[in-house]
Specification:
Length: about 350
């Protein structure tokens, strides 16, 4: 006769084995989705390359050997009616490590520029990058271009990138904004090897009702689901910077960099508003290097350590390529000092949080 108890034990054992198999497969898929090999990096966005001892020490402690260095801008000159390079980097120290040149091109340059002038512009940009590299005895494994192109300028920008790729004979990368991720049918895909997804300036800083233009998770949610299907391999840069946005008569007036809420609270001419990160000037005065009028609105903006850590994991879960550069913007002692070293270490470590 068949032993009923033995059969039951075998059935239960088989069911447990199946459940374990399913669980293991699910765990493997989750690990595969969240596991990335990260190369840590910083952006350097200053006119002078002259890192402080503190900044150099931070790079060493965080094992960062890759710097995206802003070399110069390309902007439209109204007087000469042609694009001009400006804001050239000044090296006051010998750069070390893996230096990636970054060139910022204003969208208005592409709006004004004739398509026939693109080859000359590509030549001038190439010559400027090459000259800086030769002066500093640098070799570049990559060159990056930063431009918030529009649907009206995408063809000219993409043609310029194609010309630059031929002249520079280096792999190119391009910065990618969230709206360019979502609306690829309109904005197109730049002809480059990789994209650098900029996870900051996600909301409209010109609007007084914006909560946090540097980073607002609710705004980002409108775009993040499109990241996984973006056809270019993506790297990622997140913000460390903070600023205060000032408005007068409901219009943008000025950015005050590194001015935080703690400083504004001490101002006896400011009244804190209900949402706690806004302040209203109660009288005319001068402070923070600017002239202030009664009724001026100050909105402080920053991204907390907790939000940076959470959003890093959330973004990495959307990026399909396993290997990527994870960068922080930007290398500045004043900014770095506001974050615990543990936060920076966790952000830049090779694997995301579990």
């Amino acid at each position: 006769m068949v032993n009923v108890m033995d059969v039951c034990r075998r059935v239960i054992a088989f069911m447990l084995l199946c459940l374990n198999f399913v669980a293991c497969n699910s765990s493997d898929r989750q690990t595969e989705a969240t596991s990335h090999v990260l190369t840590p990096a910083f952006y350097h966005w200053k006119v002078a390359y002259n890192p402080t001892r503190f900044e150099i020490d931070q790079l060493k402690r965080l094992n960062v050997n890759k710097l995206y260095v802003h070399f110069f801008d390309v902007d439209w000159d109204i007087r000469t009616r042609q694009p001009i390079p400006k804001a050239f980097i000044q090296f006051r120290q010998k750069p070390v490590g893996n230096i990636i040149p970054v060139v910022f091109i204003t969208n208005r340059t592409l709006v004004k520029l004739s398509p026939n002038a693109l080859p000359d512009l590509a030549t001038h940009i190439t010559q400027a990058i090459t000259k800086i590299g030769q002066q500093q005895a640098l070799t570049f494994a990559e060159v990056q271009f930063d431009c918030d192109w529009s649907t009206g300028t995408r063809d000219r920008y993409f043609q310029l990138l194609t010309l630059l790729k031929k002249r520079l004979q280096r792999p190119l990368s391009a910065t990618i904004r969230l709206h360019q991720i979502k609306y690829t049918d309109q904005t197109g895909i730049p002809p480059v090897a990789r994209g650098m997804l900029m996870l900051y300036n996600v909301a409209d800083w010109k609007r007084t009702d914006t909560r946090n233009s540097i980073y607002d998770a609710d705004v980002a949610n409108q775009y993040l689901s499109y990241v996984s299907t973006y056809p270019l391999p993506l790297d990622l840069v997140m913000p460390l910077f903070r600023w205060t946005v000032v408005y007068r008569n409901n219009r943008f007036l000025i950015f005050l960099n590194n001015l935080d809420r703690k400083t504004l609270v001490k101002g006896d001419f400011l009244n804190v508003q209900a949402d706690s990160n806004r302040f209203m000037a109660t009288r005319d005065t001068s402070a923070f290097g600017v002239s202030i009028q009664r009724g001026d609105l100050f909105r402080t903006e920053a991204v907390s350590s907790e939000l940076l850590l959470t959003e890093k994991v959330r973004l990495l879960n959307q990026i399909s390529n396993q290997r990527l550069t994870f960068a922080l913007y930007h290398l500045d002692s004043t900014i770095l000092a506001t974050y615990p070293r543990e936060t920076l270490q966790t952000l830049l470590r090779p694997q995301p949080l579990p």
